[in-house]
Design a protein that fits this description.
This protein is of the alpha+beta class and 115 residues long. The protein has a single domain (11-73, 84-106), classed as Glutaredoxin (3-Layer(aba) Sandwich). The chain is built from two helices and five strands; from the N terminus they run βαβββαβ. The chain has helices at 34-47, 84-96, and strands at 11-16, 53-58, 69-73, 77-80, 105-106.
Length: 115
């Protein structure tokens, strides 16, 4: 059996930019400002020279109540972020430093309320 090819990106960042109608009970990441923050993250990653990092817009990641949210693969680490400073912290700690921006992480304990 042939081996899988190497990953095309060393890190793939999916930023939720889903928009629901105003007043939706779950809210939406786009309504909470994810789109300009994604644009900022993409530009900053490039400015910082982060090689092999791809920042993408995603549809609903189904953690709307914590939004804006993102997930970084291959690790599958989830974050919530509200500001450019939060984005900078994630870029520095996780993508540049190989660690975690612990203060902003979503864990298995962060689940949406039922109903």
């Amino acid at each position: 059996m042939d081996a899988d090819p190497p990953p095309y990106f060393s890190a793939h960042v999916f930023v939720c930019c889903n928009r629901r109608p105003d007043g939706h009970k779950r809210g939406s990441c786009a309504a909470r400002g994810s789109e300009p923050l994604r644009d900022y993250m993409k530009a900053r990653a490039k400015e910082l020279g982060l090689k092999g990092v791809r920042v993408n817009m995603a549809g609903c990641l189904d953690r709307c109540e914590f939004g804006p949210t993102m997930v970084i693969y291959p690790e599958g680490i989830w974050y919530r972020f509200d500001t450019r400073e939060d984005v900078d912290e994630i870029l520095a700690a996780h993508l540049a430093g190989g660690g975690r921006a612990t203060r902003l992480m979503l864990t298995e304990k962060d689940v949406a309320p039922k109903g």
